[in-house]
């Protein structure tokens, strides 16, 4: 039996890539998106001002560079908009209590919320990973911990921005969890 010609493949209308939409968004819209990834007006203004970015890697490199240039006041402002990492829903209440106690001690010592990038950590290991990190970092001196927290903010911003602009989720600075899809 002979078959007739097949119909051409259906192609959906061209949808703009998230990076393309970011590149052509108004400066106000771009800064608003960036502030959801890292709440630092200086960082968001710098990244928005240097658009367009040819690709995601170029934007992420610029985001890293801008994050390294944040002042202590910029870092304090960004830290003030972060929240404690969210644990998976099936985490035992004892782990929540241990993390709450460790966080209270950390915040009393350093004056800001504990931040950590969880992008590569499997969900089943999140509670142990966060608790171990918060206990370990609580032994840091304040200057060392401020530098570590700044680096974690940079990694969080990079992860959130990369996830959003690859089309896999949205930026969100609170709670301090990896963006959806991570």
Question: Would you give an account of this structure?
Answer:
It is built from eight helices and no strands. The chain starts with 17 loop residues before the first helix and ends in a 17-residue tail after the last helix. The protein has 182 residues and is mostly helical. The chain is 57% helix and 0% strand. The longest helix is centred in the last third of the chain and has 24 residues, at 142-165. α2 (27-37) packs across α3 (41-49). The chain has helices at 18-24, 27-37, 41-49, 56-68, 72-80, 93-110, 126-137, 142-165. The protein has a single domain, classed as Oxo-4-hydroxy-4-carboxy-5-ureidoimidazoline decarboxylase (UraD-like, Orthogonal Bundle), CATH 1.10.3330.10.
Brief synopsis:
This protein has 182 residues and is an all-alpha fold. It has helices at residues 18-24, 27-37, 41-49, 56-68, 72-80, 93-110, 126-137, 142-165.
